[in-house]
Write a structure and sequence with these properties.
Layout: E1 6-9, E2 16-19, E3 21-25, E4 28-32, H1 36-41, E5 50-56, E6 61-67, E7 74-89, E8 100-106, E9 112-115, E10 119-135, E11 144-147, H2 173-176, H3 181-187
Amino acid sequence: MVQKFDFQELDLQGAYIITPFCATDNRGAFIKDYNIDTFKDNGINHDLKEVFYTISKKGVIRAIHFQLIKQQAKLVRCISGHVYDVIVDLRPESPTFGQWRGVHLTGENTKCVLVPERFGHGYLVVEDSIVSYKCAEVFYGEGDSGIMYNDPELAVEWPYDLIGGSDKLIMSDKDKKLMSFSDYRHLRNI
């Protein structure tokens, strides 16, 4: 049996929306969202070093996170529920530096987002969700950082209407204290 994946590169170079292999029958479904050889055959080097999951309630917003050192490429998939997933190009040499893209990830559509190194990543939880991260670098607390979800320069268009309005947001104390995009550019001498 051919185990077909679909790789759609976004206009932010190195970022992909990936539809994993999925086989269904009267018992349910089998989903394979990562295979090192299939990824390499499609020009993607993503060697796994760490896998983790987040369990989040509707209304949670996870701001634009990244590691300042030991950058962490991620393959992100919503296992159950629904999130609006956002990636931001933080590579100063990139023609798309500072641009963002968003995609709806659901347990039903099984799509994944490949977030390259040196990108920021966050999401808004539209329905109670479990999200899987398959990372090409381990978490490095000393380099952990992020940009505010509502930074006016990035101007991410979060679909607040899907959670009943921005007053329904649930956010960590850490995410309330993140830097602005301007602060990030200053920190990186950009």
